[in-house]
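Hi everyone, sorry if this is the wrong subforum. Our group has a chain we'd like a structural model of before ordering constructs, and none of us has done structure prediction before. Sequence below.
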Amino acid sequence: MRLIVVDDDRLVVDSLKIILGAQPQIEVVGTGANGNDAVSLYAEHAPDIALLDIQMPGRDGLSAAREILERDPAARVVFLTTFSDDEYIVSALKLGARGYLIKTDVAAIPPALAQVMDGKRVLEGKAIEDINFDGAGVEVGTTRRPAAFVSLTDREFEVAELIARGLDNKEIAATAYMGEGTVRNRISSILAKMGLRNRTQIAIAYLRG
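Answer:
Right subforum, don't worry. Here is the predicted structure as tokens:
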């Protein structure tokens, strides 16, 4: 597979180029340091996968991915993140990215990229099926939902689904016909019941479910 690697940390780029380039099935065809580099490198090389940092000075990875995917909807974009990037993950998936990988878990990157080439999405190096917003798993009342969500009320589960779709609180309020204050309360209740820290963890639990 042919890759471009874009990250504003030169050490990360150089390390990944060496580590990934040592894999017989991987060729790093270009490297860059910001979102503009990512767009131009993708246009120049048409790589199999664009491996992009999310947070970069100037133009970030999300903006670059949006342009790349607008030009080529079949593009395989995978984001490199740190745990502090949680708030970006749902936006990345909503854009159509094929997943995200933790920068520090270098050993997990080559096999995860192979799964992306096989048509899977990867979250933190683990493959999941393509996102299905219909829910599946355990029947609760008239709905089926991932097992992790069985403790939620119907309205809480509805909010969780909308979070997983990438909607913000204002959009959830408009879609679910409830006030923004009610949305915030529902999210607080979901987090407490599921033992999670933030809305991104809600989305990831849903996507994995």
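For your construct planning: The beta strands are 2-6, 27-32, 49-53, 77-81, 99-102, 121-123, 126-128, 138-140, 143-145. The chain is about 45% helix and 20% strand.
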